[in-house]
Design goal:
This protein is α/β, with parallel strands linked by helices. It has 15 helices and twelve strands. It has two domains: 155 residues, Aspartate Aminotransferase, domain 1 (Alpha-Beta Complex), CATH 3.90.1150.10; 239 residues, 3-Layer(aba) Sandwich (Aspartate Aminotransferase, domain 2).
């Protein structure tokens, strides 16, 4: 009775816990922590969405059990979104499902389609649920090294060639969390052709479809001809409409995969609270200037962060999309590793970031910086970091290069 439960044994300690505990302790002690760690949108949910929730909740009929597959109006709104954004027709009854955020949907799909011992391919580094959802389901995971300079297509081909049994599915996430990488339709065409040939499902996470910069909207894998034979795609309302606590998202694509997820969910939940689904419908069908405004805010924050951090001696590559920057740990601190650097930065500069190793072994040497503080706070973070760098003998870009050589 003293042994650890089987599924829990497969889950390593949560690597962000140490930083989170330090952050909580510092705040309890009255420290002003600038939190660039968790990707928790700080902008308010647009008023017309909140007003629709308030209106819907006044109707007592909406307080009853909802539908695990999602109310019909929201599924039609999802189909309309795919049609106008990607020019992809979606059958709202067979090819769309509402989820309690994309995280729940991904985890329940993993339970629905995975048997113990199945092989699943997942980029590394990646958002934890991409890998651990399938690990919890009993799968054997094979990592595809990702990040700067990685050739994911070549890694995918090699993994399929050397995996026994043949992989059941491959996970993709573009724009990528945590690395902020983007891909084009040609990449998706290669993936679809390869996975159709080898009869491998593709699970795509498109949570950051609308947070892109420099007028470069990311594509959907479902734009590729034949993709719906093998692919399902998850999207979240959390980032697009600043609705993280509402826990609402959706999936579209392959009818068999959507059906499997629907069957699994029918045993596990009755769907999101109906007024939340009504408000989500209003978000998708209503004015989209709020999305444009949020995107502009994130782009300004990105530009301020990259410029201000550069003055500290920390070169942060500007992301093309997502609400994150994926930054190499400055050269003088590389040997300590991303977790120790994140702890040091929190302790000495009062700035919280996410250690890259928390997203997988290939995330070591990087930290993820979230654009969830306003421009003034980002500049304050840069001032704190500049003092921190000087205390460690780094006075600017030239000093970093000298120490690295």
């Amino acid at each position: 009775m003293d042994g650890e439960f089987h599924r829990i044994r497969r889950l390593p300690p949560y690597l962000f816990a140490e930083v989170n505990e330090m952050k909580a302790a510092a705040r309890a002690a009255g420290e002003d922590i600038i939190d660039l760690g968790m990707g928790n949108p700080d902008m308010p949910t647009p008023p017309h969405i909140v007003n629709k929730l308030t209106e819907a909740v006044q109707d007592p009929r909406t307080h009853r059990y909802s539908s695990s597959r999602g109310i019909p109006g929201l599924r039609r709104a999802i189909a309309a979104y795919y049609d106008r954004r990607f020019n992809v027709p979606i059958d709202p009854n067979r090819e769309a499902i509402v989820t309690l955020g994309s995280k729940e949907g991904l985890a329940n799909l993993a339970q629905a389609i995975t048997a113990p011992g199945d092989v699943v391919l997942c980029p590394n580094p990646s958002y934890p649920i991409h890998s651990f959802g399938f690990i919890i389901a009993g799968a054997s995971l094979r990592h595809l090294p990702g990040g700067a300079g990685a050739d994911l297509m070549r890694s995918l081909e090699r993994a399929v060639r050397h995996s026994i049994p043949k992989p059941v599915a491959v996970i993709l996430c573009y724009p990528a969390n945590p690395t902020a990488e983007v891909v084009d339709l040609d990449f998706y065409r290669e993936v679809v052709a390869f996975c159709r040939k080898h009869e491998i499902f593709v699970v795509s996470d498109l949570a950051y479809a609308e947070i892109y910069f420099d007028n470069k909207p990311p594509p959907s894998i479902l734009e590729v001809e034949g993709a719906r034979d093998i692919a399902v795609e998850f999207t979240s309302m959390s980032k697009t409409y600043s609705m993280p606590g509402w826990r609402i998202g959706f999936a579209c694509g392959n009818e068999r995969l959507i059906g499997a997820l629907a069957r699994m969910k029918s045993y596990l939940d009755y769907g999101a609270f109906t007024p939340i689904q009504v408000a989500a419908t209003a978000a998708l069908n209503g004015p989209q200037d709020c999305v444009d405004e949020a995107r502009a805010v994130y782009q300004r924050r990105r530009d301020v962060l990259v410029s201000a951090f550069d003055q500290t001696g920390w070169d942060v590559p500007p992301p093309e999309a997502t609400m994150f920057a994926w930054a190499p740990v400055p050269a003088p601190f590389q040997e300590a590793g991303s977790l120790e650097f994140a702890k040091l930065l929190l302790r000495e500069a009062n700035v919280a970031v996410s250690p890259g190793v928390g997203f997988g072994e290939y995330g070591e040497g990087y930290v993820r910086i979230a654009l969830v503080e306003n421009e003034q706070r980002i500049r304050q973070a840069a001032r704190n970091i500049k003092r921190f760098m000087r205390a460690h003998g780094v006075n600017g870009p030239a000093s970093v290069e000298a120490l690295a050589s």
